[in-house]
Amino acid sequence: MPSVSDLPRRLCLGPGPSPVPPRVLAALAHPTVGHLDPAFLALMDDVRAGLRHVFATTNPMTLAVSGTGSAGMEAAIVNLVEPGDRVLVGVNGVFGGRLAEVARRAGAAVTTVDAPWGQPLDREELERAIARHAPHVVAVVHAETSTGVVNPVAGLAEAVRAHDGLLVVDCVTSLAGMAVEVDAWGIDAAYSGTQKCLSCPPGLAPLTLSPRAVARLERRTRPVPSWYLDLTLLRSYWGDERAYHHTAPINMLYALHEALAIVGEEGLAARFERHRAAHDRLTAALDDLGLPFVSAAGHRLPMLNAVAAPAGVDEAAVRRRLLDERGIEIGGGLGAFKGRAWRIGLMGHGATAEAVDAVTGALRDLLA
Amino acid sequence: MPSVSDLPRRLCLGPGPSPVPPRVLAALAHPTVGHLDPAFLALMDDVRAGLRHVFATTNPMTLAVSGTGSAGMEAAIVNLVEPGDRVLVGVNGVFGGRLAEVARRAGAAVTTVDAPWGQPLDREELERAIARHAPHVVAVVHAETSTGVVNPVAGLAEAVRAHDGLLVVDCVTSLAGMAVEVDAWGIDAAYSGTQKCLSCPPGLAPLTLSPRAVARLERRTRPVPSWYLDLTLLRSYWGDERAYHHTAPINMLYALHEALAIVGEEGLAARFERHRAAHDRLTAALDDLGLPFVSAAGHRLPMLNAVAAPAGVDEAAVRRRLLDERGIEIGGGLGAFKGRAWRIGLMGHGATAEAVDAVTGALRDLLA
Questions:
Q1: How near does any CA of chain A get to the CA of B185, in Å?
Q2: Can you give the pLDDT at residue A301?
Q3: Which part of chain A is CATH 3.90.1150.10?
Q4: B294 to each of B153, B174, B329, B364, how far by Cα in Å?
Q5: Is B6 exposed, middle or buried (0-12, 13-18, 19+ CB in 10 A)?
Q6: Residues of chain B with C-beta less than 8 angstroms from the C-beta of A250
Q7: Of A169, A366, B152, B312, which shows the fewest CB atoms inside 10 Å?
Q8: What is the pLDDT, as a whole number, of residue B109?
Q9: Are the beta carbons of A227 and B39 separated by less than 8 Å?
Q10: CB–CB of B20 and A31 under 8 A?
């Protein structure tokens, strides 16, 4: 059996995981203490405070779900949806589609508002659909990782609340890389992953619920179908009761603690600007290379750049050479973009001029 | 915000997490690579092979669920149970009760066979109940962490199969610390956690399904209610297709890879014997201290020792002093044992004479 230490070093510039700073790796490897150890519980409180900061919220129910970003998605949906509820989902990529699927499995009557891959959802179309269906829950992906497009979230809450609905937003790729304003935007549930702009290994799903969402949770007529993700139980562990629910992924929480400390030291505004600057540098370099974006201008994410592979080029072979010869990982296309797009992630610790120059320089060589 | 590096060092002798060897912590901190990186996929294959070894199975569907042990429990139940199915659960502690609750939430008609806390389930009573109810699924906890009792699992499959049922076994605390024979015992689904006798941090749930269980899964009439835990999707990632499902907890899998390598080096028989020897040493020392077990003689787990706190002693205060003054963590009682028992875990790297002497020596001082 080969050893973990034999694994090659990679520059992770795909759709996640992003490069993890040495400080975060060091925290990850700190000796494990108990999940009910008072010293660990204090650290969990720090994590909650750090998550409130990046989510821009004062929500008391803010925590990290013990699973990856998709577990955060499932937690948001299964806690807030009961069988028969009307759920409206914006779909313009893989993750909108996943939201719809998770809601269907939770027994919801799902309606979708669709947009072509590479285009943002249309706010007015969403609002018309909300007016028509009066959904219990409206769910939208903020930053669609499969297409590199930002969807219109700010301003949507008014229409959702007019029908007493809840607004659920997937912030997996946007959180800590661009503005996510849970309170100011009236978001009722937001979730993310740790392996994108937080630059922490994957394994936890930051999650926050508004008091309106908590009230909905408390009014449920049936138990949450998932015991593992039941937020009424999880908050007894993360809250003052400290009741044992499951054994938290202790070392992963060490890593998230350190990642949030780094975010705090840099400051959110500076972090967002760094992501924006890396995106601008990449945009200029891709233009030079003659590689067009497949995402619509004016709606592009800074941290996830979906780019057309040149006609006649085997995009998978180029990615494999990037990985094998240069140690650089970028992502391939999913769904409608499969086989014809690359996804270049500039997330967290990877949003630097050096990373941009490394990947565009390598692409220049390989495409010559 | 205090730093993770300020956390105190602890000797973890509670119900988990167990002490994590430095090699496993070092593997955990190896720089993160992508979850679809060929080098990482090869490592996942090693993990599957290592898990088959500890589960004593040839089951193709053997993997690590991206959550803690309770996620493994939920995965086993929600994949194999459909609404209305009859599920029989043995309950003689917290984790049997949890199995019943998870099955109820999955829509099962649940019957329980109960035994008092500290006593094992009665095999004949289980078999009579199986004959009476012809359950689709029989679920039993092998090593009940809340009471320190081993339940009779070997030999149960015959009765279960006589009615075409599936046998689900919780091996969270037993795996890699005592014999778990998935194939020889006819177990159809077994799951565990990483933070017990595997001596890895918490965050993954080893899981294996027999071909019979896979056939049941494939015959489902409704989709698995949990998208995150849907084994028909997870096996496309862990299997030859390598289809993206969710971003695996990459660094946690590094750690599990190393933990399984250590198990392989020691050998299962030697590892079980080490756990048994540590238990025997502890038993002798507790006898010296006049601290009786609360679990029935002849049915005690080697790795989890439930002991009565002396009358008149504030058991929580003793645990707190052990932690604060000696840096040793032991567990308190749960449920029926709350406030009157201690749980001393000798799991994985913690199953040593030195650990036994440390905890019993400290108890001798504190109880003097």
A1: 28
A2: 98
A3: 9-17+268-367
A4: 21, 19, 19, 19
A5: exposed
A6: 17, 195, 201-203
A7: B312
A8: 98
A9: no
A10: yes
Contact yes or no for B19 and A1 at CB 8 A = no
Which CATH architecture best describes the domain B8-17+268-367? Alpha-Beta Complex (3.90)
With a CB-CB cutoff of 8 Å, which residues 283-322 of chain B face chain A?
none
Distance from CA of A232 to the nearest CA of B (A): 14
pLDDT digits (tens, 9 = 90+) for A154-168: 999 999 999 999 999
A22-264: CATH topology is Aspartate Aminotransferase; domain 2 (3.40.640)
From B342's Cα to the closest Cα of chain A, the distance in A is: 15
Measured distance CA(B199)–CA(B219) in Å, rounded: 36
Residue from B82, B233, B251, B324 to probe the interface with A (highest A Cβ count within 10 Å)? B251
Give residue A172's identity as a one-letter amino acid code.
V
Q: What is the residue type of B175?
A: L
In tens, the pLDDT along B265-295 reads 999 999 999 999 999 999 999 999 999 999 9
Q: Taking all residues of chain B, what is their mean pLDDT, rounded to a whole number?
A: 97
Residues of A in contact with B246 (CB under 8 A): 68-71
A259-273, B57-71, B236-250: which range is least confident on average? B236-250
Chain pair A-B, CB pairs under 8 angstroms: 245
Under a CB-based contact definition with an 8 Å cutoff, are residues A160 and A113 in contact?
no
Closest CA to A50 of B4, B202, B30: B4
Q: What six digits make up the tokens of B293?
A: 């077990």
Per DSSP, helices labelled H in A200-294 are: 211-218, 231-238, 250-266, 268-289
Q: How high is the ipTM of this complex?
A: 0.98
Does the CB of B172 have a partner CB in chain A at under 8 Å? no
The share of chain A scoring above pLDDT 90, in percent, equals 97
pLDDT along chain A (368 residues), means of 10: 91 98 98 96 96 98 97 98 98 98 98 98 98 98 98 97 97 98 98 98 98 98 96 91 91 98 98 98 98 98 98 96 98 95 98 98 96
Q: What are the start and end residues of each CATH 3.40.640.10 domain in chain A?
A: 22-264
DSSP symbol at B6: G
* A96 in B contact zone (CB under 8 Å): no
